[in-house]
Amino acid sequence: MLIAQITDLHVTARGTRAFGQVDTNAHLAAAVAHLATLDPQPDLVIITGDLANTPEPAEYEMLAELLAPIDLPCRVIPGNHDDRLSLRRTFGARGWVPLEGEFLHQSVDDGPLRVILLDTQDPGRVEGRLCEQRLAWLAERLAEHPDKPTLIAMHHQPFVSGIEGMDRIRCYGTEGLVKLLDRHRNVLGVVCGHVHRPITVGWGGTVVTSAPSTAHQIALDLRPESSYRWTSEPPAVALHRWRPGEGLVTHLSFVGPQYAPRAFG
């Protein structure tokens, strides 16, 4: 099974740019076109939050247009920049988000690898949170198929990365998640966004991987009390490949003609 992950799209209203500089809409259009060229095609696309930048209605109109060409099974969870109701209005009819419930949790159970998407948004705040209600929902889902290989997706990173500005706004309330992971060893990994960087860490008895943004990346600055900065490092699609007996392997497929494969010689 092959899962494509895109994250932190930060789409803006037509004709505008993030920070007045980054053309996030053009970057997303390139990422969507890149998805269509992948061979083999992914079995599932997951979009792990921060689809919009503000969010404003015009951004969701732009999102619907930019993501319309995706002709693959797709699921969406919110990030701190998103509005749950707007996501439902935009993608509910396509089956990308659940139409009911306080949170936009969902699970995809029809493949050999189960994918559970966990809503970590804490409305009005930048950091994420896992409350008792959300952890109880996750515990129920994990108990349904205790032996099936499972991948958990969320927006906010649960780990400390060393990039201090992003660590202050990570996911909180994760102690309960660690306990669930300890009880459910069939969870092969956790994938997230939010950090705008490719990071892999052993955490909670499993492996957590964050994917780069489809647009701008956060500067790698490991100094204490470092300032928040962005860079034009290349955008990428994360590809999570699972096969029986081989485990879960993550690759980055960089977006842009300069990264297209070429023959030697």
Helices and strands, with pairings:
Layout: E1 2-6, H1 24-37, E2 44-48, H2 57-67, E3 74-77, H3 84-91, E4 106-108, E5 114-118, E6 128-129, H4 132-144, E7 150-154, H5 164-167, E8 171-172, H6 175-183, E9 187-192, E10 199-203, E11 206-210, E12 217-218, E13 230-231, E14 236-243, E15 247-254
Parallel strand pairs: 1-2, 2-3, 5-7, 6-8, 7-9, 9-11
Antiparallel strand pairs: 1-14, 4-5, 10-11, 12-13, 14-15
Give a structural overview.
The radius of gyration is 17 Å and the shape is globular. The mean pLDDT is 96. It has helices at residues 24-37, 57-67, 84-91, 132-144, 164-167, 175-183, and strands at residues 2-6, 44-48, 74-77, 106-108, 114-118, 128-129, 150-154, 171-172, 187-192, 199-203, 206-210, 217-218, 230-231, 236-243, 247-254. The protein has 265 residues and is an alpha/beta fold. Strands 4-5-7-9-11-10 form a six-stranded mixed β-sheet, with helices on one face. It has a five-stranded mixed β-sheet with strand order 3-2-1-14-15, covered by helices on one side. A two-stranded parallel ribbon has the order 6-8. A hairpin with a 5-residue loop joins strand 4 (106-108) and strand 5 (114-118). The chain has a single domain, classed as 4-Layer Sandwich (Purple Acid Phosphatase, chain A, domain 2), CATH 3.60.21.10. The chain has six helices and 15 strands.
